[in-house]
Amino acid sequence: MLKKLLLFALAGAALFTIGILIGHFSDQKNSSSPLPEWVQEVAQDVDENLIEKFIASGGQRKQIEENPSIPHMATTAGDEATVEYMLKRWQDRDTGLDAAWREDYRVYLSFPDKDKPNNVTVVRGSDVVGSIREKEKAYRAEQDDPEVVQPYAAYGPAGHAKGINAAPFGVIGVLVYTDPYDINDGKMSDENETYPHSWYLPPSGVERGSYSTSFGDQLTPYLAAKNDTYRIDEEDITGVSPIPIQPIGFEDAQMLICELDGSEAPETWQGSFPCKYNLGGPGFKNTSHFKDCDVQLDVYNKAEIKDSANVMGVIWGSVEPDRYVIYGNHRDSWVHGAVDPSSGTAVMLEITRILGQMVKTGTWRPRRTLIFGSWGAEEFGLIGSAEYAEEYISKLSQRTVAYINVDISVFANATLRASASPIAQDVIFTASKQVKIPGSDTVSVYNNWMQHSNRTSPTHGLIPNMGYLTGAGSDYAAFMHYLGISSMDIAYTYDRSKTRARIYPTYHTAYDTFDYVSRFIDPGFTSHQTVARTAGNVLLRLGDSILLPFKCSDYAESLEQYLSVAVENFEAELKTNGISMEPLKEAVKSFRTAATSLEQTISSSDVVSNSPLKARRINDQLMLLDRAFLNPLAFPDKYGFRHVIWASRSSSVASFPGLADAVVKARTSGLKQDWSQAHKHLSIVTQAISGAAHTLTEAHAAL
Amino acid sequence: MLKKLLLFALAGAALFTIGILIGHFSDQKNSSSPLPEWVQEVAQDVDENLIEKFIASGGQRKQIEENPSIPHMATTAGDEATVEYMLKRWQDRDTGLDAAWREDYRVYLSFPDKDKPNNVTVVRGSDVVGSIREKEKAYRAEQDDPEVVQPYAAYGPAGHAKGINAAPFGVIGVLVYTDPYDINDGKMSDENETYPHSWYLPPSGVERGSYSTSFGDQLTPYLAAKNDTYRIDEEDITGVSPIPIQPIGFEDAQMLICELDGSEAPETWQGSFPCKYNLGGPGFKNTSHFKDCDVQLDVYNKAEIKDSANVMGVIWGSVEPDRYVIYGNHRDSWVHGAVDPSSGTAVMLEITRILGQMVKTGTWRPRRTLIFGSWGAEEFGLIGSAEYAEEYISKLSQRTVAYINVDISVFANATLRASASPIAQDVIFTASKQVKIPGSDTVSVYNNWMQHSNRTSPTHGLIPNMGYLTGAGSDYAAFMHYLGISSMDIAYTYDRSKTRARIYPTYHTAYDTFDYVSRFIDPGFTSHQTVARTAGNVLLRLGDSILLPFKCSDYAESLEQYLSVAVENFEAELKTNGISMEPLKEAVKSFRTAATSLEQTISSSDVVSNSPLKARRINDQLMLLDRAFLNPLAFPDKYGFRHVIWASRSSSVASFPGLADAVVKARTSGLKQDWSQAHKHLSIVTQAISGAAHTLTEAHAAL
After folding, report:
1. Domains in chain A, please, with CATH?
2. Each residue of B270-307: pLDDT tens digit?
3. B1, B5, B6, best to mutate vs chain A, most A CBs in 10 Å
4. How far apart are CA A267 and CA A253, in angstroms?
5. What DSSP line would sit under B509-559, residue for residue?
6. Which end of chain B has fewer CB atoms surrounding its CB within 10 Å, N or C?
7. Residue of B14, B41, B694 lying closest to A34 (CB–CB)
8. Where does residue A327 fall: left (phi above 0), alpha (psi -120 to 50 degrees), or beta otherwise?
9. What does DSSP say about strands A368-375 and A400-405: parallel, antiparallel, or unpaired?
10. φ and ψ at A378, to 5 degrees?
11. In sequence order, what are the beta bridge partners of A369?
């Protein structure tokens, strides 16, 4: 009844844009024909004043100080304390989110045995003539905390290896260390050079880590690790070491390396120790006190299946609750993890505090739903985020606009660093132009970034050099590679002209503490604040803009760049093998054409006045663009890597990963079947790009 | 500027529903505040008057008569003529679509050699003492058309096999025929019993077909078969016969079978021939004129890569052009194909003629985009539709609401038959209630259908028995199984109480002609019209309704039915092997809860008056529900089957296919690793159902 009446009534109505209509109503507040509420709501765009206000807020030091400053390795009591802390914060009645809860997975972890510590000794027969430290040296109470986990290589198997020249034909055990040359700019003395005197790693510091090549729970690939989930046999796990491994400090490494005999190691293997690094073929030097000794490695690591929690929080969207912007940071550390991950947690907590307060006071609610994830067991292989992605794969694939990852928020306090899907470059630039660097009212994060790292874009000229997310270095992996959700990873980092350190020196050691952060990484916590302002700005734009602030032409530029590298490196050889690159060139061209055309549509559209379905249509095209590059069969041997543009790559040629790796393999082997695989990968990436271009064309064109 | 003004202006506006607003305007046509056009457009629901008008239209006989009535096997000159005919019709300025075009793929086909016909002979030494017919007997000019392809088994390899007792340990060649018992209700004489006297198959009739277990182009699995696409080696094709095969008529089969010696074949193997069917172990009978003879099979089939065309047509949507309803029918036949596929083509052409006319005269345009596909090379393995799905996988996955397949539209003129994703049951019922059966003003297609085939639903009571799309019998396969698009397959069919024929008897023979259809299948073409009215009704509802006419509670019922069969057949055994079915039960329960909750939301929503984003949100949930059941890794050995509920199944237990097949295998082998696979498939289907349930929950709940 209503419908028929409606159609009849509408037939005679005249044609006006809502812009005109609203102008009319703004003049006639007492008119008898007010607009329905939803017409107003859907026309609300991002509020620049609110963003300015957001940028002006923030107190990250407080966040870090309040955050439980205890060792909180995944699934330990310390981890549980942080779970409860997150829940308390996100459920706070004045500054919390709409809802927060925990989600547990039963995951496969690996720990040292507290009763039987791993050890490395130098033995002559049954005599122990030397041994490495079991613990890192204590300079403050933190290092003496009984909850500090002994240095170990997670997922390295238990086992005993003895020898030094015992295995000429096969390695039977591995000791891992980082040379002071690579981490400490050569500094080695804790009397005045290293922590607690500087940010450098003390001689006894040992980097912990997960020794596995894939991510997610290893017993339940492609399935969420629930109680009754099917698990593969432990012996079927791939990508882990078959032999024992133990990380050691450089002090202990020096003790061993400088005594080694044998031929001289290559120049690039030499480090900062005051000795020649030899390969050790025949064992220790005849002149050494370790002469005729073996090195004995005893590893007692144990695998355990344990409950690990993600803490989830949400602010519901008003106009498009079924569109999600996800912001995440892991919660677990190896030891205290003041930098990794608490520097990121502090940023997330400050962002949620400010937004939560606005929601609780009724001054703001985002257009889209914002989801916050405090991931568990990241250090063991991005497990919490990967299990979340596996459990909610359908819902997340259908609805997620973007994923923002801030893991370590401040590696160092020199400049912003961002890696992302190219579609997000523009919104990161916009945000970074709006935020000023610490201590300046004039220099933007953008300009400072461009000074530290830049490139010349064919479209934009000189711009900051944004990286791609080609690996699985943090929790963006499951979102970017498995789900094809446009992701970004944001942090503050080094001035590369001032240090060679491959990462901040106390990474994954017992020296990554509040004391360390507040004295050496970011005194005053102003870089933390800068990251919060930048990432929060990106979050607000993604959450509130009527049109998503995504630029597909920047994606076209990245594809063109990859194409030109591929042509330069591979075309001649492919041609020799009867394989044409023309279809790939055509595909990239069609992508550029489609991107240009969509951006013309966008710039000529008045999405505020038009039907909200128009903006939704364009937004769906932008939201789903990265999804179009997924191919679940492209990389059968790489768990979770489905994105044919950004999957991990072995080849050093910075181009399409499947193609690059296949050509390099075929080039090496010369085998016909390997060239055939190169052709296959060429077709896969070509059709993925064509398919993505199809999704960018107007809805009614070229169906 | 405008935006800020806008927000300010809106702040003071009062809250009214658009229903009230429209009522207001309907009374005051001269008001100074008319509604913007889009507000009217988005509130237009399906027009029942238009559907009534549509049902009253139609002239299918004309469509069939006009349709080129020549042999049009894929890629032949006859096929090209039908391509041109389709284009002419869909590009007609008065009755055509908005646009129509062809899309070609280079596909791998298989044909007999015109110069060296396949033959089957009975030989004694070098003497030929008998041979089968090379061609079907001509009763009319059609059978004598030189374009009639000789009977053959597509993709059966070329080869020569001789023997009858020559291969006790292995079959070396296969002759295929259909017994008159199974196809002709026992009728065998063309003097008065079979065509041209009835619909039964003449003795020389031979069913052609494709002998391959997978679908889509066989050289380019998962890739669209373009010119430069990577192709696998022919020898790597799986699912085809390694030995020669030849189909023969029952006349020739009788000549051989009734002469066979050996032990008696099982009762179920006996047929209508007036002899005992023996297994033939020792060869022909001693009393036979074929005594001591061999059967010689010479097959000269050749594989060829040829260009095959889809013809595509479109009517653009007005409000949601980025939502597609696809309607398809294949175009290629084996011979004249008056039933298969022209009965379906006639229905599609009549639907597009009526809709095209409405569009051209400006009286109607659908809310969503309607895409029509005239698929090529279906008979060789659903190739045209599969290549289309592979090429446009991203765009189609993101935007397609449903796929309607009408292949053979009339098998027989007794009753409607439909198979579909359960979500589409309701809209098919709605349409079939509105259409009357041929020759009646009172009996609905629905009631007639229920008389012929019904079941008792826990929710609905007695209803027509709609089937599921568990196989790859027609072009719905790529949509349903590969893309997870809710699909349906609609036709008119037999009164099963009146015939045992497994399909209409002249299927894939040279007797499937206009003469046959007009005299035996559907005199008056009224059943064709009934199918057009029903399928067209479904199409209009899917294309025009504000809310998609999909019911997820019907999906819940199907899952519950599959669950109860699984529990009954597998639970005890699984438990014995330490595998719990509780998580699956929980998942199905959570799906039911979510479906109920979504349908409550739907029934309490005034989507006409609300923001169009609300309907869009619900529609996206409904549209993407089948997508949530896709798992590209669940069935690695079955090309294109990704839907974990409806994938093809070997087990006779009508339940979840991966689970059913794995349990049956484990039950047979008793091997631990096979039970492990059963557990894996249990987890896969459990998590798919849970994941689907998540997508049905309110956008903001349980993220």
Report:
1. 2-42 (no CATH), 48-106+310-543 (3.40.630.10), 552-696 (1.20.930.40)
2. 999 999 999 887 789 999 999 999 999 999 999 999 99
3. B6
4. 18
5. STT-SHHHIIIII-GGGHHHHHHHHHHHHHHHHHHH-SS----HHHHHHHH
6. N
7. B14
8. beta
9. unpaired
10. -65, -40
11. A324
Which residue does chain B place closest to A692, by CA atoms? Answer: B394
Digit-coded pLDDT (tens) for A561-592: 999 999 999 999 999 999 999 999 999 999 99
Q: Among candidates B660, B626, B662, which has minimal Cα distance to B643?
A: B626
Q: Does the pLDDT value for residue B25 go beyond 90?
A: no
Q: Which of A136, A142, A350, A378 is catalytic?
A: A378
The set of catalytic residues of B is 378
**Spatial CA neighbour of A504 closest among A261, A145, A199, A296:** A199
Answer yes or no: do B40 and A699 touch at CB < 8 A. Answer: no
B371 forms bridges with which residues in the sheet? B314, B326
Average pLDDT, integer, range B380-408: 98
DSSP assignment of B6-72:
HHHHHHT-----HHHHHHHHHH-TT-S-PPPHHHHHHT----HHHHHHHHH---HHHHHHHS--S--
- Name the band, by pLDDT with cuts 50, 70 and 90, for residue A699: low
Q: Is B609 on the interface with A (CB under 8 A)?
A: yes
- Min CA distance, B495 vs chain A (Å)? 40
Q: What is the pLDDT of residues B446-494, one digit of tens each?
A: 999 999 999 999 999 999 999 999 999 999 999 999 999 999 999 999 9
Share of chain B above pLDDT 70, in %: 92
B217 has a pLDDT exceeding 60? yes
Residue A422 sits at φ, ψ, to 5 deg, of: -55, -25
Residues of chain A in contact with residue B321, where contact means CB-CB under 8 angstroms, are: 617, 698-700
- Would you call A269 an interface residue with chain B, using a CB distance cutoff of 8 Å? no
Confidence label for A8 from pLDDT (cuts 50, 70 and 90): very low
pLDDT digits (tens, 9 = 90+) for B554-606: 999 999 999 999 999 999 999 999 999 999 999 999 999 999 999 999 999 88
- Residues A613, B616: C-beta atoms closer than 8 Å: yes
ipTM (interface predicted TM) = 0.93
